[in-house]
Amino acid sequence: MDTTLKPNPKYEVRSNVAGSSVKYDCLHCGVRLTSSLMEAGNYDHCPDCQTPMVVPGEKEKVVEAQKQLIEQKKREAAAQRKREGANEALAQKLADEARRARDLQLDRDPLREWIIYSVVIGLLLVFAAGRHLFNAIVTDTSGLCVVIFALFIFGVVLNFRAVKGLRSEFVCAAFLVKKLKSPRGFGEIVKAPPAGVFHQHIQDLVRIARHDPNVSQDSLMTLLYSKMMARAKIVDTLSGVLVSLGLIGTIVGLIVMTNGLSGTLDSLGESGDASHLMSGMRETMAGLGTAFYTTLVGAILGSIVLRVLNNVYASNVDHFVSYIASLTEVRITPRLRKNARDNLQEVVAGEIVE
What we know:
Strand order of the largest sheet: 1-2-3
Number of strands: 5
Order of helices and strands: EEEEEHHHHHHH
Helix content: over 70%
Number of helices: 7
Shape: flat
Largest sheet: 3 strands, antiparallel
Distance between the termini: 53 Å
């Protein structure tokens, strides 16, 4: 094949339902030709004169391929969001059904623990440091205390949503445990769409058991724990940010205080004007207030309150992962291993008969 062949520089790209195509003329006989845009850059022959040619439109082919890749990623992302939304809706439905079941016993209730800790810490803050926290917002001229409070509220909301979702997982797990006690419960769990991480965990083990009779859940539990602790890491990062902002406020306050002292000394040395003296003293005291208040607010809200609430979530995640690992090891994996061995024996027996 002659590698010096050049495509016809005059061509036309059209798009339709079937896809994009390129129209061009044969450089030898002039017949009008049509090729798929995906063939651009490839060698071909004119069907009339059999002259070799290169299909034009290679640049448009690259652009079209990029568009198709972007569209494919969008479709995959939309499908993933749809699956996640369906799973969350199903998990919520199971949780609602489980709440209506009077005989359902939760192994642990993280939301109740979170509320208890929040109320206790809130009351302690109000009685011990409520006045100081209020004064910090009112008197801090740097605005850092307001920023710390805003980030604190954001962190509490994230933590509350994580704890609420974790409680739904406990409810779904309890519902599945109850269902496993019924004669056909395991089969229904395997066939039903996954509702909650425990349900998904069981179905993943079933898929593994189809290929490995010695099914193990160790890797799945590690991945599950990492996934559930991701939310705790976000809140823990916010906690560190609040403490850091408090330290930054200390530095800002000291700078303001230094400027105020400088103004005070200047007023004493030059004119002794009382108004300048009082202005410098006020600036000095404002700097001290910023330094102390931002440190106090950052330490209390970030290092104490948010970290304690986040530890409530983290400890419940530890308990939940241990809980479903124990349930799986006792109720699920023995059954899967037995079924896998029985199926393997049937296959081997069939091969021997043949």
